[in-house]
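Note to self: keep these together.
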Amino acid sequence: MTGPVTASGRDLRALARIIRADRGEGEPPAEGVAPSLLGDLLGLVRCDHLLFIGSDSSRQVSWFAQLAPAEVGDWFDPAAGWKHYWSSPASYPDRSGDLRSVIKVSDFYSARQWHSTGFYHDACQPYGIEHEMMLCLPAGPGQTAGSERTVRLILFRGPGRDFSERDRDLLTVLRPHLHQAYLDAERRRHPAPRSPPGTGTCCTWPPPGTPTPRSPAAWA
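Structure:
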């Protein structure tokens, strides 16, 4: 049974900074969210590295991927991950329709069971990854639970440092903010088309002094 989890003053201050931060972006990033946001998350949860990624599990492709810290470079083999995807915890959101829960590998496997999986052998062990924690979001405002296109934040640690309930709770609190930050960046990257100048609508007020029409035909 898990005992109570408390947040330190340091945790609360870090959360407040992340939520209130004005990142001063002149232009949104080409994909995902501001790198400074991912850097703040990296420091808050204190993981080795993290991945923010848009994935389509039905086609087994990703349309963007952001790493933090950026200098970790090419350390993950997508082909190995997709090969074992449906037998790994990564497929939990697809199979359950649950996009709200923050999940850890240890929610599904003991250490011995995890080490016997193909996903661990091919996609994690070669890169020193022992522990993972994942937060899942809808890919867009029109998508619902169970959609095969999702946006995910995946955090990684090496041996002997599993994620705690404190870590899970921090991501749970930050989940709505991360989702909003992603949607805001998407709206800035793909703004809605604006009406041409001078285009009127049926709800436009007429200029002062305009005679009031006396019939529906005159209104039209």
